[in-house]
Design a protein that fits this description.
By secondary structure, the protein is of the alpha/beta class. The protein contains 16 helices and seven strands. Bound molecules: adenosine-3'-5'-diphosphate.
Length: 322
């Protein structure tokens, strides 16, 4: 791979400094680019991605807002695509973080370089990439090519709680930044001021695209996967062009993959308990408790003038913010 020229670096810095700025939950700067908020590394990466990425027709994109089940979907898609090569007992998932098997655009592919060699040598076909990039900011070549997009969304209440814990517990608070309470954090979430927010715009961009182009975008929900992994796994395999044969179904391959990729299995894989990302983030940070729908049946309706789009307010989090 080739480093970006210092000239390109300078242009990028200048562009970044013209963007609107805000603070995230630990006091780091967020930059608003094309309607969405990013911290510095992903802001630059998304712009490089948009300007440089050339899609292949065989590419698979796994797209999420953070904390929506990206790690899980990485494991599932990797397993579906590579199941002939690696039977489940020999899966690389037993020794490698899903984040090293399916790299993410913002924190891996474009985190340092603009012109990485993404050719077949480094990334055998089909290339599988994860990204949190919103629909409107995707590189045009993704939209023009025949590549597939799998979007995974999650109940925003769970997504917020998961993200809150992830950020507040894993990223040091900037010195002399007065910590936000969870209520203040939630208010900002509702205003869309959080990494890769606004949440609803992120989800709706892909939801609309999945309605217009169902052959290109498969829209999945974390809660549905939790409820019924088998039929969702078959749907996913069909969509990706790797359908399970009747023989495989009879042999229980679908269940084997579900089990291999389950929270309970992956959480206890050595590298996921003790390993780290190159930036020092612990792999274990991606496995918290994976409990869906902690607010279902206990939603307190809108009150106190909180401006929450779906009509709920922050109180719902007090009960179960674990
Ligand atoms: P919680 O914080 O609610 O536990 P992401 O992978 O997008 O960063 O999302 C992380 C969330 O997915 C965390 O949610 C994490 O526990 C959960 N998760 C991780 N691996 C999972 C798996 N294999 N199955 C289900 N949920 C998983």
């Amino acid at each position: 791979s080739k480093n970006i020229s210092s000239e390109g670096d300078k242009v990028m810095e200048e562009l970044i400094q013209t963007l609107p700025q805000e603070k995230d939950w630990v006091g780091s700067t967020l930059y608003q680019y094309q309607g969405f908020w990013y911290s510095l590394v992903p802001a630059k990466a998304v712009i490089s991605f948009q300007n440089h990425f050339k899609a292949h027709d065989t590419d698979i994109f796994l797209i999420t807002a953070p904390k929506s089940g990206t790690t899980w979907l990485k494991a599932l898609i990797f397993s579906i695509v590579n199941r002939k090569q690696f039977p489940h007992t020999q899966s690389p998932l037993l020794a490698t973080s899903p984040h090293d098997l399916v790299p993410i655009i913002e924190f891996s592919i474009y985190s340092k370089n603009q012109t990485l060699d993404l050719g077949n040598g480094n990334f055998p076909s089909p290339r599988i990439f994860a990204t949190h990039t919103p629909y409107g900011t995707l590189p045009s070549s993704i939209l023009k090519s025949n590549c597939r997009i799998v979007y995974l969304c999650r109940n925003p209440l769970d997504q917020f709680i998961s993200d809150w814990h992830f950020i507040v517990n894993n990223f040091p608070r900037k010195e002399d930044f007065k910590p936000f309470s969870i209520e203040e954090g939630f208010d900002r979430f509702c205003k869309g001021i959080h990494a890769f927010g606004p949440f609803w715009e992120h989800v709706l961009g892909y939801w609309k695209m999945s309605l217009e182009h169902p052959e290109k975008v498969l829209f999945l929900k974390y809660e549905d996967l939790k409820k019924d992994i088998t039929s969702n796994l078959m749907k996913l395999a069909d969509f990706l062009g790797y359908p399970f044969s009747e023989e495989e179904i009879r042999q229980g391959v679908v269940e084997e993959i579900s089990k291999l990729c389950s929270f309970e299995t992956l959480k206890t894989v050595e590298v996921n308990m003790t390993g780290e990302r190159p930036d020092g983030l612990k792999n274990s940070a991606f496995f918290r408790n994976a409990k869906p729908g902690r607010v279902v049946g206990s939603v307190i309706p809108y009150e106190n003038g909180k401006n929450v789009k779906d009509g709920y307010n922050a109180k719902i989090f007090y009960r179960n913010a674990v």
